[in-house]
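hiii so um. not sure if this is the right channel but i have a protein structure encoded as tokens and i wanna go backwards to a sequence. like what aa goes where. can anyone help
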């Protein structure tokens, strides 16, 4: 049974905004929170007394926010609560992003070391391979278990000593401790199968699907400051990209 949804047609609030808020309430209800299909558009538009065009506008916003998924021939489904969502626009550090979503995050591992860079990393930073750089390793997730393994490498000119507070949001720490402002993020997203190392870290079977993200971070002068590798459990993370046609 669907909860009572009512649009106020006399309100100055646009209909699609009202519909969006009502749908947010609906998908947070116990009946829908674990991935159930929503009523079809015809039924929903009748319930809300709005056009299907207005309804689609509201649904599209919730799809973008990572709360709904749509599949042709199947319908609109609520994203299961265990799935996290990340957007490519207005990017933040992982800690900031999860905090903004009210998701508690635990560090299962946190290691800092000085290493010689691989050729690809040295090339990105424009340094020689015999110049040691700081490497930060973090295994993170919800309190009940990890879902992402990060390896970050930093340009020597960032000035990191290894004594900083790496439990703090990374880009906030860089700005406060060293005046480095992370401004631009360029990313490559791909899929791979978990090898023995990643499977052990993420507590998932060898050969399980993994979302692999390379992140190249630059400062306000577009100078490279961080080379980041992230390995995400595919059943715990959704990556959303918004594109606009000019």
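sure thing!! here u go:
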């Amino acid at each position: 049974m669907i909860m009572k949804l009512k649009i106020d047609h006399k309100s100055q609030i646009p209909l699609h905004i009202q519909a969006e808020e009502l749908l947010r309430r609906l998908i947070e209800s116990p009946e829908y929170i674990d991935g159930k299909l929503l009523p079809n558009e015809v039924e929903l538009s009748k319930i809300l007394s709005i056009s299907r065009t207005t309804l689609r506008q509201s649904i599209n916003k919730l799809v973008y926010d990572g709360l709904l998924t749509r599949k042709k021939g199947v319908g609109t489904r609520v994203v299961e609560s265990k799935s996290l969502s990340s957007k490519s626009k207005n990017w933040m550090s992982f800690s900031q992003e999860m905090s903004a979503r009210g998701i508690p995050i635990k560090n299962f591992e946190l290691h800092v070391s000085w290493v010689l860079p691989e050729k690809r990393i040295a090339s990105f930073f424009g340094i020689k391979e015999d110049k040691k750089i700081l490497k930060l390793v973090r295994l993170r997730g919800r309190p009940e278990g990890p879902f992402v393994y990060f390896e970050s490498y930093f340009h020597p000119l960032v000035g990191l000593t290894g004594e900083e507070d790496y439990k703090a949001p990374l880009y906030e720490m860089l700005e406060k401790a060293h005046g480095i402002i992370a401004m631009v993020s360029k990313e490559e997203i791909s899929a791979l199968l978990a090898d023995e190392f990643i499977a052990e870290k993420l507590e998932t079977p060898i050969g399980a699907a993994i979302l692999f993200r390379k992140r190249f971070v630059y400062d306000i002068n577009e100078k490279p400051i961080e080379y980041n590798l992230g390995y995400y459990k595919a059943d715990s993370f959704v990556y959303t990209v918004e594109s606009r046609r000019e």
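oh and Helices lie at 15-27, 41-48, 52-64, 94-100, 119-125, 170-178, 196-202.
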